[in-house]
Design goal:
Number of strands: 2
Largest sheet: 2 strands, antiparallel
Strand content: 5-15%
Radius of gyration: 13 Å
Distance between the termini: 18 Å
Oligomer: single chain
Length: 104
């Protein structure tokens, strides 16, 4: 684990750049994290980010792609469009959460 500065915030990250302390995340940090992976956040992104944060707090783990889809009603195809390539991993990254279990 190491510490880095993103948008003026010191945060603890793992070797892949994921925040290791979700409590260090803020809504100010999310657009900066998104920019690092080439995303501009829309209202739909924010809806999903807020769901991930709430669900993680309630369940104690990062929701999987399937859970995000079933709980929010967002089709998996839409999740891939919003977070191209590896949506579960990218959603977790921007949300300041650990990678979902089973995510490589």
């Amino acid at each position: 684990m190491s510490t880095t500065t993103i948008a003026g915030h010191e945060v603890d990250v793992n070797e892949e750049g994921f925040l290791t302390r979700p409590d260090q995340w803020s809504e100010e940090l999310a657009p900066e994290l998104a920019a690092l992976i080439g995303l501009d956040l829309t209202d739909k992104h924010w809806e999903l980010i807020r769901f991930l944060r709430t669900d993680h707090a309630a369940m104690g783990e990062t929701p999987t792609l399937r859970r995000v889809s079933t709980q929010t009603g967002a089709p998996v195809k839409e999740l891939f469009a919003l977070f191209p390539g590896k949506p579960a991993k990218k959603m977790a990254y921007v949300s300041g959460l650990p990678k979902p279990k089973g995510c490589v």
